[in-house]
Design goal:
The protein is of the alpha/beta class and about 325 residues long. It has 2 domains: about 120 residues, NAD(P)-binding Rossmann-like Domain (Rossmann fold, 3-Layer(aba) Sandwich), CATH 3.40.50.720; about 180 residues, Dihydrodipicolinate Reductase, domain 2 (2-Layer Sandwich). About 30% of the residues lie in helices and about 25% in strands. The protein is built from 9 helices and 15 strands. The protein has a 9-stranded mixed sheet. The chain has a 6-stranded parallel sheet with strand order 3-2-1-4-5-6, with helices on both faces. A hairpin with a 4-residue loop joins strand 9 and strand 10. It is globular, with a radius of gyration of 20 Å.
Length: about 325
């Protein structure tokens, strides 16, 4: 198949390298050339600065890795053309034009995989299996926390200029660090309502939110907490689950996954496989996308899944503005 990569920032570069490692070489690029990364590694590959010209090359599949606010500018025409799409998370910075994308994909039979790569993490996959098996009984409460220091992300650019820090490009802690919304929904079910507060005291001098603390009620009655921030040193990402018959604890950075069952009254530890790296998530995702694009597998994270996450993000922003709980419609 022929692949078009739209956007060549850090994630576009990662997807490119993973496609090459999987033996795919028929790749072209659509670039605005506003990224701080150069074309140096693209020698021998076609680069277009006009989307219409890029799509005229008739790619079978499109990897959309440009800034969040610009996703739909590429996704909608690509879907209309019938291209299969790996659409980076979140699918957009608002609910605007999402129905247009859904209708275009339905009309052309474009298959869309949304890039929430944490669904491929072996720790979260194990947790999902345990929850389905009711290993710790009825779930009472879940909490996820993700804090990182934004200025440490990309050494090659001023963080003020990165899409994560710019409102016009769809930045902000809530959008950029939206993975927990997806994996909480994937494991524990649909959200019923959310409330949220923002903080950070503008410590980084950026125009988007630096910290969000939110409370979730799931439709099945589970209560949850979510925290994301751009301020934390050292970084931390964890998930804690309290059930009627025990607890589950997962730490992404240390790789530690453990389960406590009250019947045994002991913790069991499940270490990550030796040599596991962050890129393994993206590589698994790309392998899956190749199967989706070839019609050999349904998307693990579908466009409908991505839309539901986008609705939750919109509700969280509304909850901040209104100062009250907002239902997920």
């Amino acid at each position: 198949m022929k692949y078009l990569i739209a956007g060549f920032g850090s994630i576009g570069r990662r997807h490119f390298q993973n496609l090459l490692s999987l033996g795919e070489k028929d790749i072209l690029f659509y670039r605005s050339r506003k990224s701080t990364l150069s074309d140096e590694s693209l020698s021998g590959f076609r680069v277009e600065e006009d989307l219409e010209k890029a799509l005229a090359q008739k790619p079978d599949a499109v990897v959309i890795s440009n800034p969040t606010a610009l996703h739909l500018d590429v996704a909608i025409p690509a879907a209309r053309q019938g291209c299969h799409i790996l659409l980076e998370k979140p699918i957009s910075n608002s609910m605007d034009r999402i129905d247009e994308l859904r209708n275009a994909a339905k009309a052309s039979d474009s298959r869309i995989l949304v890039g929430f790569q944490f669904r491929y993490h072996p720790g979260l996959m194990q947790i999902n299996e345990w929850i389905q098996q009711e290993k710790i009984g009825s779930i009472y409460y879940v909490r996820t926390h993700w804090g990182e220091y934004l200025p440490d992300w990309h050494s090659w650019e001023d963080y003020h200029d990165s899409y994560s820090a710019r409102k016009d490009l769809g930045g902000g802690a809530l959008l950029t660090l939206s993975h927990p919304i997806d994996y909480l929904r994937w494991i524990f079910g649909e959200f019923d309502s959310v409330s949220a507060k923002m903080g950070g005291q503008k410590a980084l001098g950026i125009e988007v939110e630096e910290m969000v603390e939110s409370t979730v009620r799931f439709k099945n009655g589970i209560l949850g907490g979510m925290h994301v921030n751009y301020l934390q040193r050292p970084p931390e990402l964890f998930l804690e689950i309290i059930g009627s018959e025990g607890r589950i604890s997962w730490n992404y950075l240390s790789g530690e996954l453990k389960i406590y069952q009250t019947e045994d009254q002991t913790w069991e530890f499940y270490p990550l496989m030796e040599g596991f790296s962050r890129n393994d998530l993206f590589l698994e995702e790309m392998q899956h996308f190749l199967q989706v694009a070839a019609g050999k597998a349904p998307p693990l994270c579908s466009l409908d899944d991505g839309i539901k996450v986008q609705k939750i993000i919109a509700a969280l922003y509304q909850a901040v503005e209104d100062g009250t709980s907002v239902s997920i419609l």
